[in-house]
Write a structure and sequence with these properties.
Layout (H helix, E strand, L loop, with lengths): L1 E7 L7 H13 L4 E8 L17 E8 L12 H20 L10 H19 L4 H5 L2 H12 L5 H4 L3 H14 L18 E4 L4 H13 L3 E5 L3 H8 L7 H21 L2 E4 L2 H9 L20 H4 L6 E9 L7 H14 L4 E6 L4 H17 L15 E5 L8 H6 L1 E6 L8 H8 L3 E5 L4 H5 L4 E3 L4 H13 L1 H18 L2 H18 L38 H4 L8 H7 L1
Parallel strand pairs: 1-2, 1-4, 2-3, 4-5, 5-6, 7-8, 7-10, 8-9, 10-11, 11-12
Length: about 575
């Protein structure tokens, strides 16, 4: 079948964990044809200039940047301007005055219908061109201001000033750019048997439009809930309260529309599933599919548990405040009181500039909590806490980092799907984790889980495992078996292969074929026409003898009646 794969955040199959997952999915499903559509945040590359060779099942790659949009050369006439004002005014009216989630009144369904009608009305206008310019015009800002000043608007929206209205209008223009793409005709997503959006937000909006214009069934996969990411990123220091309230309402409405229209949702864990259900997704149309990870590179570490130093704790991940390394360092002071020989290795990914400040803070705290120790007066001191980087001499690879310790620690206060925890499980290491995100779901009963921001509980769990080598080995073996059963690339590919077939079998896309006169031909595109194989061609075997002779003509009706 033909799959329209919609991705976001970079060029297809190359950037980040999402890119790795898309690459593995496409390469693993070689019997299907993929049209990759990428919404990028910078300059993206087309298929002919892609840095890595694409698999043969990728028929083409179409890219569109989100951070910059071409200036429209189409100017709306009076009727189109009136239509734009109505649709955009309706959309921002719902955003500025609606509520979403538990506790909403009976008008919530009407608000959802109004949002849907306004969104698709803008999409219809975009097919004629000119929408980008209209969204940037004074007309859009005035419509937003009227909605915020209208009776029943949110209190924070009524307090919005002109700079805040301009900020909201600019954000809405960027969020609605997928409406203006030329992806939804019979030469793009409209020709697909299934549209698979690999994340929420703009990627899911593109799939939503393919469903609206061409009836293509929509599959949405979220390993990190886009709405949750927006809420976490919209802190008090990022924007004014009015801006945060209006944008949160818009993204909440968009998420509810995507979840309601999707044929199937595939969250990566129960934590993401609860978010989707909270936003109105039908439980019957949700199927959890764990992300697939490459297990082969951890095989050596997993089959050699004796390589680990029995006195070493290891933390591996991205150095940032959400990982709460401060609590981990305070917990390690308690561990050292019970186990003076214990050591802590903090192995981080290559740093960005914002992370360097937090890493410097953690280094200073470690130097304060653990002064350099020496065995004698003339010996060189050594700190029990070491800060290392993946790819350095101490940890050339991820597998080496996990293999160095007897216990792997996860101290996060915010976590989605804990990738580092799964990697430690592949390596057969016992783990101590905080109860955040999908940690409990991933770890099952194969590790210890403690409350977040509780250094004492974290220390007690670590000490318990450092004291008991048999328990460590038992938990590590169970963790490796669980990871190999649930979190491999093979199980992920098999799950999506079955999902693709199930969706297409229950939601076929109607294909209308016309004859030379323009009249629709019934049964011109039978179901088996999309099944791999030569179903409609001539059979290669020889015809029987009776079929090769001259056919016998039927007796004319008149001659038959005369014989009687």
């Amino acid at each position: 079948m033909r799959i329209g794969l919609v991705t976001e955040g970079g060029c297809p199959c190359v950037s980040g964990e999402a890119g790795l997952w898309c690459d593995r999915l496409v390469r693993g499903l070689g019997r299907h044809e993929f049209d990759v559509h990428t919404l990028g945040h910078g300059r993206c590359q087309e298929e002919d200039e892609h840095p890595t060779p694409l698999p043969p099942q990728v028929s083409r790659v179409r890219t569109a940047p989100l951070r910059q949009a071409d200036t429209d050369t189409v100017a709306y006439g009076r009727r189109a301007r009136r239509r734009f004002t109505e649709c955009y005014g309706e959309l921002v009216g719902v955003v500025s005055g609606g509520t979403l989630g538990a506790g909403a009144d009976s008008a919530s369904g009407d608000l959802a219908d109004r949002f849907r009608s306004a969104l698709y009305g803008l999409a219809e206008l975009a097919r004629e061109g000119g929408l980008v310019g209209a969204l940037r015009s004074d007309t859009a800002v005035r419509a937003l201001e009227r909605a915020c000043r209208a009776p029943g608007a949110l209190r924070t929206a009524r307090e919005a000033r002109v700079p805040e209205l301009l900020a909201v209008a600019a954000h809405l223009e960027r969020a609605l750019r997928p409406l203006s793409l030329d992806w939804y005709d019979d030469d793009g997503l409209g020709a697909a048997d299934l549209c698979h959006a690999t994340t929420g937000g703009p990627a899911a909006l593109a799939g939503l439009l393919a469903r609206h214009f061409s009836g293509v069934p929509l599959l949405v996969t979220e390993y990190g809930v886009r709405l949750r990411s927006h809420y976490l990123g919209a802190g008090p220091d990022t924007a004014a309260p009015a801006v945060r309230a209006l944008l949160a309402a818009f993204h909440g409405r968009l998420a509810a529309e995507v979840y309601g229209a999707a044929t199937l949702l595939t969250p990566g864990n129960a934590h993401a599933r609860r978010w989707q259900e909270r936003c109105g997704a039908d439980r019957a149309r949700i199927r959890t599919v764990y992300p697939g990870m490459e297990a082969a590179r951890f095989t050596e570490a997993g089959e050699s548990p004796d390589r680990a130093d029995p006195h070493t704790l290891v933390w591996v991940g991205r150095v940032e405040p959400a990982k709460d390394l401060v609590s981990l360092l305070h917990a390690f002071t308690e561990v050292r009181r019970e186990r003076p020989e214990a050591r802590l290795r903090i192995v981080g990914a290559p740093l960005d500039v914002p992370q360097a400040a937090y890493l410097g803070h953690c280094r200073a705290l470690a130097a304060q909590l653990f002064p350099d120790e020496a065995d004698g007066v003339h010996a060189v001191g050594d700190n029990p806490v070491s800060f290392e980087e993946i790819g350095g001499p101490e940890a050339p690879t991820l597998a080496d980092a996990y293999a160095a310790g007897a216990v792997v620690v996860l101290s996060s206060v915010v976590e989605g799907f804990p990738i580092s925890l799964v990697e430690a499980m592949f390596c057969g290491r016992a783990t101590v984790s905080t109860d955040v995100g999908a940690v409990v779901e991933v770890i099952g009963g194969t590790g210890l889980v403690v409350p977040p921001r509780n250094p004492r509980a974290l220390a007690e769990a670590c000490v318990g495992l450092l004291r008991d080598s048999e328990r460590r080995a038992r938990l590590g073996a169970a963790a490796r078996a669980r990871a190999l059963e649930l979190f491999t690339v093979e199980q992920n590919i098999a799950a999506f292969h079955g999902i693709y077939l199930d969706i297409v079998s229950h939601s076929p896309v109607p294909r209308v074929v016309l004859d030379p006169a323009g009249t629709p031909l019934p049964f011109a595109a039978p179901a088996e026409s999309r099944v791999p194989g030569h179903w409609t061609g001539p059979t290669p075997r020889a015809l029987p003898g009776w079929a090769t002779t001259t056919p016998v003509r039927a007796t004319p009706p008149a001659a038959s009646e005369g014989a009687r």
